[in-house]
């Protein structure tokens, strides 16, 4: 397929985000929900960006739709960067993979897949659903 | 406290260089500082307030005050990317109104061209301490694809076309042909833009600004000092600033921080978009201009594509003459930051010092708008409204 050869820079986890990346190793996408106002947010933080309440991890379905995308033609190889709106609400930056780049469209239903970054840490990306 | 009438822009200077192989960044800052002070009829010794942003080497205003030989009682290093300098004009006016300084110098300089920087397509290199970095760098965000996602969404949501975006570059090129310092002076057509290579869908190479060295400086001062000088009087009428970000995952790429900064500036100035005779709009990409024009209220949200088409931004042709120096799309983009040069051309228009071929007649009210950072993630916006007195 289109962008399987791209070297994916490895994310550098920290104490605030380690559970997110640990879960990615198990093929699970985590979000954070505020204990006080019950709203989800992304990227995950220790304190809710909407009310500064304490937050807790929960697993996302992994389903979403493409909010916007662009094919970076100047890169070798070209790749599809995107914002994906998860069915739980938050919109997150990612890549669209396992699809010919010219077939990527806004509104497409996508599902999370995990691709290894350059140090082996899996990162969540999205492929066409079903 | 309002800054309306509290301060005047007394001096401006734009460095003519577009490739500064044989100059340092600090030297460029000094050359533009000298140029703007000369333009105002002031000297280094008159400066008691200094403003710079992330392009200044070293410890910001501390390193630069020493290099420039300034004795200061007020400094401000507000850093909001390319929009910093509009913010600085506003903060300088505020400081002057509060009596914290009387002659404020703002400088910008950089040499990304000489350093061989691939500004739009190089990977971001934010250290791990930056909280968003680990959730973005794996996916290859670069400046071009971030702005491209704004364009893609605008096209999807409002039916905007690549042809409409191309008109923004076409208008800039019509102006740049008259600017002897512009990097690209050739007039281009919509077809030329669409035929240029795709950098990041849907943005073509000619949708992207140029990469140049250079810089510029602005002197802001009190009404009393401004009126004692020989230059035309350019009054700060109003200003607004606002950052915008991904808002915890509630992402909307169809507007910029200008949607907040613009109304604040118009309210302070007591004018409306219809009163503006000339607008400098930060043109990092064609889509940047379109979003800001909508956010400023020159047309409804979503109608920007139709508004910019058919030469509506060309001086002497359209309703909203913009970037009559050729802007970032054609003339220059010093330090990869376009906010300061936007103010410079607005001041030239108000003084009647723009090139005669692009000078707006009876230009008594102008606007300069900047954004900086990435419209696709987090950025600053600054709006400044200026009046010839
Ligand atoms: Zn909360």
Give the helix/strand layout:
The complex is a heterodimer of chains A (130) and B (389).
Chain A: H1 18-25, E1 30-34, E2 40-41, E3 55-59, E4 63-72, E5 79-86, E6 91-96, E7 109-116, E8 122-128
Chain B: E1 8-14, H1 25-40, E2 49-51, H2 60-68, E3 74-76, H3 84-97, E4 103-110, H4 143-158, H5 162-176, H6 190-195, E5 198-200, E6 203-204, E7 214-221, H7 223-228, E8 234-244, H8 258-269, E9 278-281, H9 286-295, H10 304-308, H11 327-330, H12 339-351, E10 365-373, E11 379-388
Parallel strand pairs in B: 2-3, 2-4, 9-10
Antiparallel strand pairs in B: 1-7, 1-8, 4-7, 5-6, 8-11, 10-11
Helix pairs in contact in B: 5-9
Bound molecules: zinc ion.
Structural summary, described in words:
The complex is a heterodimer of chains A (130) and B (389). Chain A has 130 residues and is mainly beta. Chain A has one domain (18-128): OB fold (Dihydrolipoamide Acetyltransferase, E2P) (Beta Barrel), CATH 2.40.50.840. Helices cover 6% and strands 39% of the residues of chain A. Chain A has one helix at residues 18-25, and strands at 30-34, 40-41, 55-59, 63-72, 79-86, 91-96, 109-116, 122-128. In chain A, the strands form two sheets. Chain A has a five-stranded antiparallel β-sheet. A three-stranded antiparallel β-sheet of chain A has the order 2-1-3. Chain A starts with 17 loop residues before the first helix and ends with a strand. By secondary structure, chain B is of the alpha/beta class. Chain B has one domain: Peroxisomal Thiolase, Chain A, domain 1. In chain B, 32% of the residues lie in helices and 17% in strands. Chain B has helices spanning 25-40, 60-68, 84-97, 143-158, 162-176, 190-195, 223-228, 258-269, 286-295, 304-308, 327-330, 339-351, and strands spanning 8-14, 49-51, 74-76, 103-110, 198-200, 203-204, 214-221, 234-244, 278-281, 365-373, 379-388. In chain B, the strands form two sheets. In chain B, strands 3-2-4-7-1-8-11-10-9 form a nine-stranded mixed β-sheet, with helices on both faces. Chain B has a two-stranded antiparallel ribbon with strand order 5-6. In chain B, helix 5 (162-176) packs across helix 9 (286-295). The longest helix of chain B has 16 residues, at 25-40. The two termini of chain B are 21 Å apart. The model of chain B has no long low-confidence stretch (mean pLDDT 97). Chains A and B meet through strand 2, strand 4, strand 5 and strand 6 of A and helix 4 and strand 5 of B. Zinc ion binds at residues 34, 36-37, 39, 48, 50-51, 53 of chain A. Chain B: GO terms for molecular function: acetyl-CoA C-acyltransferase activity. Chain B: This is Acetyl-CoA acetyltransferase. Chain B: Residues 250-387 form the Thiolase C-terminal domain. Chain B: It comes from Chelatococcus reniformis. Chain A: One of its GO terms (molecular function) is DNA binding.
